[in-house]
Amino acid sequence: MLNVATHMDYEGQGRAEKLSRVIITLFGAVGLIWGYVIQQFSQTVYILIAGVLLASILTIPPWPIYRRKPLNWQKARLEPQSATTGDNEMSKKKKH
Q1: How many CA atoms within 13 Å lie on the side-chain side of 17?
Q2: pLDDT the model gives residue 31
Q3: pTM here?
Q4: Regarding predicted confidence, which is higher, 92 or 12?
Q5: Helix axis angle, 41-59 relative to 10-38, nearest 10°?
Q6: Which of 8, 12, 20, 34 could pair with 59 in a Cys bridge, judged by C-beta atoms 3.0 to 4.6 Å apart?
């Protein structure tokens, strides 16, 4: 079976968000300047859309650059059998 990663780590999410903001801001500024120079607002919108598409391609999939520091979760603790029966006895006594 093919093992495909479907998530990014916490730091990778921050890195992806920062990268998307930089790309969209850069494309927006360039689009605004270019649209002003040629007096075509539609060119500004096209350049901004290109930036959004590029940012989406680079930041939405969980690329390996966003999975460098995974969180190490604690293993689940199994409670001893005697502790659960003791809790049940206490709850029965409280009901009476």
Answers
A1: 7
A2: 97
A3: 0.70
A4: 12
A5: 160
A6: 20
